[in-house]
Design brief:
- Helices cover 60% and strands 0% of the residues.
- It is mostly helical.
- The longest helix is centred in the C-terminal third of the chain and has 42 residues, at 170-211.
């Protein structure tokens, strides 16, 4: 057999193996979904109609492999954010981490909004879907889950923005710069004040010694 024929045979066999592995993986996921569906049928229906319909339950609930579930299997807010950001990278992740919500969750808050609080957990829909929690018309109601009776103005804000001199993140960018410079100026002035006070005290002590 020529080298070229061997190469083509190797490619065909590799493709067949990969397809078989894909089929086995799909069968495993389907079996896992069937197992979950026996008790969590409602959640499963929501997932199937969401933008995450291609995922299995264990894609997010990675620590659950059987029944009964281990103690503490439900995700707290920090774990929930870590689960979402394991797939969602870039602007969305970075902007959330910089936000008040993200910082509060990072430090252990169970009251601040996680990804699931705004976007949903099992029923996540795109923002163009009128039933989505983050559709523009629904944002005030979503925010009202934590902020009481949120006004329509909540829908005018933007959660995921870049901190740049131009664009929707510009006000936050310049506000951040202002407070950075304000902090540096205050600290510098404080250090100068302390040094002048120490210099004054030193001169006073030296004068007292000369008088003696």
């Amino acid at each position: 057999m020529s080298e070229q024929n061997k190469w083509w045979l190797w490619r065909v066999l590799s493709t067949i193996v990969l397809l078989l592995l894909g089929v086995l993986a799909s069968a495993t996921v389907a079996q896992a979904q069937d197992n979950c569906r026996q008790c969590h049928g409602d959640e499963n229906s929501r997932i199937e109609s969401s933008v995450h319909g291609f995922l299995s339950c264990t894609s997010c609930h990675t620590d659950i492999s059987g029944y009964p579930h281990p103690e503490g299997a439900s995700l707290d807010k920090k774990e929930s954010v870590a689960t979402c950001t394991s797939c969602h990278k870039g602007l969305v992740t970075d902007s959330y981490a910089r936000s008040f919500h993200g910082k509060a969750i990072h430090f252990g808050s169970e009251k601040s909004a996680s990804c699931a609080d705004c976007h949903g957990a099992h029923d996540i829909l795109g923002q163009d879907n009128p039933n989505s929690k983050v559709a523009k018309e629904n944002i005030p109601e979503t925010c009202a889950g934590c902020h009481g009776e949120a006004s329509p103005g909540f829908s005018e804000g933007e959660e995921h923005f870049e901190l740049t001199p131009a664009g929707s993140g510009a006000p936050m960018y310049y506000t951040g710069k202002f407070f950075i410079w304000l902090t540096l100026i205050i600290i510098t002035a404080l250090v100068i004040h302390i040094e002048l006070q120490l210099y004054h005290n030193l001169r006073t002590i030296l004068k007292e010694r000369k008088r003696r």
